[in-house]
Design a protein that fits this description.
Elements: E1 2-3, H1 6-17, E2 26-28, E3 39-47, E4 51-61, H2 65-87, E5 93-97, E6 102-113
Parallel strand pairs: 1-6, 2-3
Antiparallel strand pairs: 3-4, 4-6, 5-6
């Protein structure tokens, strides 16, 4: 997958993810101030001479900690299965935001720039 602009790169990944991924309640093409439970966000993290680096985040609100972690793991696998064909194996970093009481899984994906040299 290659894109000519940051907006196109975000839209292409958003469109890919905005299918029926089991367990995902909402996909955003931006970083919302208050994401809903079991949601996925797509934003631009960085721009290099050859790639647009897209940030993919999964948000899971914490109720029962064990259940929330298991839901997060399931969502990671479901989202990964959707993007794997175009981006290959991925790395997910998992954090907890105590103020918002959410688990956040973050993945950085590179998509080629059609305007690269």
């Amino acid at each position: 997958m290659a894109s000519t602009t940051i907006a196109q790169a975000v839209t292409d990944l958003y469109t890919l993810l905005n299918t029926s991924i089991s367990g995902v309640t909402k996909v955003y093409d931006h970083e919302p101030t208050t994401p809903v439970d079991n949601s996925v966000t797509v934003t631009c993290q960085a721009v290099t001479p050859d790639f647009f680096v897209l940030s993919l985040r999964i948000y899971v609100k914490v109720g029962d900690a064990r259940d929330s972690q298991q839901r997060l793991w399931t969502l990671i696998q479901n989202v990964d299965a959707t993007v794997d064909a175009q981006f290959g194996p991925s790395r997910w970093d998992i954090t907890y935001d105590p103020e918002a009481q959410v688990f956040i899984a973050t993945n950085l994906l590179e998509t080629g720039r059609e305007d690269s040299y």
